[in-house]
Design a protein that fits this description.
alpha/beta; 4 helices; globular
Length: 146
């Protein structure tokens, strides 16, 4: 019988770490992305993931990146596990607004991890940090470089 537990998967196939290369491979131009902003999401995810990998390499913390998805297809783009077992979740949104419902994947991750869940963030295209309850916040993407 298949397990009903949520799935944590390592990034076995390395995500495209160069957003420019990904854009070229998909034939995306600035004009196409400007006309259809939904095309921007995967590029932004690729870019942010590569920036997080750089930050991980420069950190004294030992972190392992994962992806999370449950049976209802709620997912978290990046899950970072510290060597002591603590978990942080990161969602990436190519939007300037975030709603409570956008935290469904992070709330599911928090429930699955229990006391090991440290914090969950949605990185988004705005300048304000907005708290959405216990250990959840929307944080500007630009905070990666502050």
């Amino acid at each position: 019988m298949a397990s009903l537990a949520p799935k944590f998967s390592a990034f076995g196939q390395a995500p495209m770490q160069r957003s420019g290369l990904l854009a070229a491979a998909r034939g995306l131009t600035f004009d196409r992305i400007k006309a259809d902003r939904t095309l921007f999401g995967s590029l932004l995810q690729s870019f942010v993931f590569s920036e997080i990998l750089k930050l991980m390499a420069a950190s004294d913390e030992r972190l392992t990146p994962y992806h999370f998805r449950d049976q209802q297809m709620r997912e978290v783009d990046i899950v970072l596990e510290r060597d002591d077992g603590m978990i942080a979740g990161i969602e990436i949104k190519a939007s300037a607004t975030v709603r409570s419902g956008d935290f469904g994947g992070l709330r599911t991750l928090a429930q699955a991890c229990g006391d090991r869940f440290a914090y969950g963030v949605i990185l988004y295209d705005s300048s304000e940090v907005v708290h959405f309850g216990d250990r959840l916040a929307a944080v500007p993407i630009s905070s990666l470089w502050r």
